[in-house]
Sequence to fold (496 residues):
Amino acid sequence: MTEVDVAIIGYDLTGKVLAEQLLSAGHRVAVVDRYAEARPRSRAVEYDHEIKRMFYAMGLADEVDKISRPMGHFTWYSATWQVLHDFDESRPSISGGPSGFFLDQHALERILEDRLTRHEHLVRRLGFEALAVEERGDHAEITLAPFDQDAATTSAEKPRLLTARFVVGADGAASITRAAIGSEWRDFGGDQDWLVVDVEPTAPNLDLPDAAQWCNPARPTRLLPAGVKNRRWEFMVLPGENPEGLARPEAVWRLLSDWMTPDDGVLLQHDVHTFQTRLARGWRRGRLLIAGQAAHLLPPVSGQGMSSDLRDVWMLSWLLDRVLKGTSPDTLLDSYEPARAPHVEALIQASLKVDELLCMTDPASAAGRDASLLRGERPPQVKPPDLSGGLLRDKDPVAGRLMPHDKVGAHRLDDLTGRAFALLLRPGAQIIPAQEKRLAALGVVPITAHEGRLAAVLAETGRAAILVRPDFYAYGSASDIVALPSLLDDLEAALG
Ligand SMILES: Cc1cc2nc3c(=O)[nH]c(=O)nc-3n(C[C@H](O)[C@H](O)[C@H](O)COP(=O)(O)OP(=O)(O)OC[C@H]3O[C@@H](n4cnc5c(N)ncnc54)[C@H](O)[C@@H]3O)c2cc1C
Fold:
């Protein structure tokens, strides 16, 4: 018998959300991290509506709302502050509410930590470095040693072992789990140094755009809200510049002087980060899996780093849940990478195109870009695609599509379904008692959609029924109710 069902290396955002989901499903979980506590650092500030839906489903809506600022307009400006393009992100998304939100990642980590303290059975190995991770036939094993945070060294004390049925590496860019799997780490190029500055404004009414890209070839710069009150600036480090010199407070205030002075706010973070773009090929080997930054690094211009990390674990948690409960064989986990990797790659490719356009440092090229945008040319945008692989019904017109969210009568759809499959039914599409029994056995919750976005998606696709996975994506559909048994046959076979 292993100590836990799942050991997660890395107790940052990805590790925390996965731990919470597995614990909520009743599994035994251990978390391992070098650091005993989350460190305040400048990290993610953006997430999208799909992730907001996850927070709702986790019962964290109120807490996360308090630290989130809904997106308004994202505007691209020329060097002389002419509007080159304006994206209205406040328009309603398919989940309800705007398409995205700003927050401070550290505040989110505190909310998750608070939630996790409720799970008294969580095994915490915090302040421990995972030195090695290996598969051992019927279990996996992590070798741990105490980590000295101040000296940033591991102790020479005798290492100890942690055993688990599965190990998930949520251990970031330098993942040892990825190395143990033997994954290829594809480099999409374009590594860039950026100075990331977080400020707590103290002066009222600073004249700042909501969210903006200043397409100034002299120094491409992004300005974003960092939660409800704070602000983020990202300044490109130019070729030949000394990153350390640029990150000194006096240099930072010089860069900020277009917008504010030291009398107007407090510097919270000001560090140079090398933004990389990477994607692992090989997300699973037997009992070892990776998720989040261990599996991919997206350029910040995508605004999709954190959202992609959390999509990984939202999917992986229900797949692992079925395997751990024995309702599906472990081959179900092979559907994880084919679903997630192409999704991330599409975001990477779109981000690289946007990045190329926004980060021009050659004045002539920048002038050409400005002219075409001012003529009304539509710039590329980074939008999450549908799923193209994984556990999807073959040749189904709706399979892989992210399904909308809405109320069903007085209830929220996700509150009715929890983390089960949902069968959205067109009004009048009656299921017979024998089918009801079958749905219950498969753990599928039938929902008749009379109105709103759920009824609209059935009408738009012309389907009588859409089977929605626990991660909000459509598995498949039926054109009429007579075709429902065949849809359920396919699901049953796919789940194994
Ligand atoms: C400067 C910066 C800006 C960013 N901005 C954005 C943004 O605007 N929008 C966005 O969506 N995303 C952004 N991101 C990404 C975002 O921060 C991540 O999505 C988020 O941190 C989740 O990452 P993770 O948990 O997968 O990995 P990480 O945050 O890298 O955490 C990995 C954890 O694993 C631990 N660990 C690693 N190896 C070991 C080991 N061997 N033993 C024990 N512990 C180990 C580490 O201590 C760490 O706690 C940004 C990241 C950075 C660095």
